[in-house]
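Deliverable D2.4 — example input (structure tokens):
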């Protein structure tokens, strides 16, 4: 796949989002970080591009592995690390800004569940429908094992994402994206412990015990993966800087944008983002954005922010769309015979479909719960 293909995909996403936003608009952003919303839009499409490249390889090798291209690998994996930084920045800021009042943990966790669960469970229903189709609507395992595997998925794959009904590589159906949601929950449940470290006297014992218990069980079940944790740590740094630093730098937008481009180019010289050097580059990019850089105005563009609004649906749906088209509709054998140009055109034409479906899911599944939270 051409290194210029991502540009065409972003253009297709932009045009589709422009048409939708012109007709339907986007949600209000009072009190929100505009540049962060815009960044989400870029990142979600980046993950889609990453998995599209993986699917082209998978069709011929039948091995699910990272793209061989630096660009296509970085655009996906680095995007996920930046998503983690966004989570850490927003909720560390929220925690710091509630001082000295006590933090309402019950309300926080309930709000997080309402934010993540509706769209996640809708995507899980789609995945189960595909499993049923691929299994010819025949139960191929014991009812106990079937229910057990489905329960793992229903719990955001906090322990594992096993094959369902003996369908090999079930997780490929949604491109395996839910691994990151388990780390999102790890971060949320780490916040009571973090609050204790900040202010032991104001800590709430029950939530502290729950936090420590969840962290222990998580690492026992999942093992230790350092780079998401490092991303969370780097995301918290600008939150502390904004809260406690007396220094308020004035950002030169052009210089900051050129600086980000230079760092992105530097990233593309490396294959894998899971290194200290690459994580520090990502942290520098993110810190620059939190200081106010709008990347030549793109991050404050209403259309890009519209893509940011629907980014969670995009993240959960894109793998299902790729699987449906290249495995169920075209078939793996036919997909493997496509030339790079033909395959690229499929991806470009799928982009408007992804944006449209993401918007519909945002409007009818995500948005009703977001409105309830704001009341």
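Example output (designed residues):
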């Amino acid at each position: 796949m051409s290194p210029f293909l991502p540009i065409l995909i972003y253009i297709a996403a932009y045009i589709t989002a422009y048409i939708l936003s012109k007709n339907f608009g986007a949600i209000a952003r009072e009190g929100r970080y505009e540049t962060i919303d815009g960044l989400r839009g870029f990142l979600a499409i980046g993950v889609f591009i990453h998995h599209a490249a993986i699917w082209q390889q998978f069709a011929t090798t039948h091995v699910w592995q990272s793209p061989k291209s630096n660009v296509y690998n970085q655009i996906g994996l680095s995007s996920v690390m930046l998503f983690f930084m966004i989570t850490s920045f927003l909720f560390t800021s929220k925690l710091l800004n509630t001082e000295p009042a006590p933090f309402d943990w019950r309300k926080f966790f309930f709000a997080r569940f309402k934010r993540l669960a509706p769209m996640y469970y809708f995507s899980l229903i789609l995945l189960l429908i595909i499993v049923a189709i691929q299994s010819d609507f025949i139960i191929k395992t014991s009812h106990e094992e079937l229910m057990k595997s489905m329960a793992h998925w229903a719990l955001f794959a906090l322990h594992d994402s096993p094959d369902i009904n003996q369908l090999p590589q079930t997780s490929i159906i949604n491109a395996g994206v839910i691994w990151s949601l388990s780390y999102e929950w790890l971060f949320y449940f780490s916040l009571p412990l973090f609050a204790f470290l900040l202010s032991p006297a104001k800590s709430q014992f029950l939530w502290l015990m729950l936090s420590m218990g969840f962290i222990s069980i998580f690492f026992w079940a999942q093992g230790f993966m350092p780079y998401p944790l490092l991303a969370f740590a780097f995301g918290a740094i600008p939150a502390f800087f904004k809260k406690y630093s007396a220094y308020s730098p004035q950002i030169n937008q052009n210089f900051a944008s050129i600086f980000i481009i230079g760092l992105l180019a530097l990233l593309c010289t490396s294959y894998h983002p899971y290194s200290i050097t690459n994580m520090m580059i990502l942290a520098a990019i993110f810190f620059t954005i939190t200081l106010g850089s709008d990347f030549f105005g793109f991050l404050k563009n209403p259309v890009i922010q519209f893509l940011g609004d629907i980014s969670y649906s995009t993240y959960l749906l894109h793998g299902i769309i790729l699987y449906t088209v290249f495995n169920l509709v075209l078939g793996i054998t036919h997909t493997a015979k496509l030339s790079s140009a033909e395959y690229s055109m499929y991806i470009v034409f799928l982009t408007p479909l992804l944006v449209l479906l993401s918007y519909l899911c945002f409007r009818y599944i995500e948005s009703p719960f977001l409105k309830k939270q704001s009341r």
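Residues 210 and 306 are 36 Å apart (CA to CA).
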